[in-house]
Amino acid sequence: MSRNQRQTSLEQIILDLIKNSPDKRLPKDTIIDVLQLRSKKELRRLDKSINRLASKGEIGKDGKFVTIRSGKKSNKNRSGNDLIQGKIQITNRGTGYVIVDGMDDDIRISARDTNMALPGDLVSVKITGSDRRSNQPKGRVVEIVKRGKDFYVGTVNKTGSNTWIIEPDHKSAHTNFYVLPDNLHGAEKDEKVTFRLKKWVHMKALPEAEVISRLGKSGSNDANILSILAENELQADFPPEIEKFAASIPEEIPQEEIDRRRDMRDETVFTIDPHDAKDFDDALSIERLSNGNFYLGVHIADVTHYVRPDTILDKEAYDRGTSIYLVDRVIPMLPERLSNGVCSLRPHEDKLTYSCFMEIDEQGKVVNYSVEETVIHSKQRFTYEEAQEILDGKDHKLKSEVHLAGMLAKILMDKRFKEGAIDFDTPEPRFVLDDKGKPIDVILKKRLFAHRLIEECMLMANKTVAIHIDNLKQDSGKRKSKHLYPFFYRVHDKPDSEKLRAVAEQVKPIGIDFQVGDHITPKHVNKLLNDVKGTSVEIIVNELTLRAMSKAVYSPDNLGHFGLGFSHYAHFTSPIRRYPDVIVHRLLKSYTSGTQAYSYDTLQNHGEHCSEREKVAVDAERDSIKLKQVEFLSDHIGDTLDGVISGVTERGIFVDLKNIHCEGMIRVSDMKGDYYNYDQRSHSLVGRSGKKRFQLGDEIKVIVESVNHAKRQIDFIPA
Question: What's the CA gap between 613 and 235, in Å, rounded?
Answer without folding.
Answer: 13
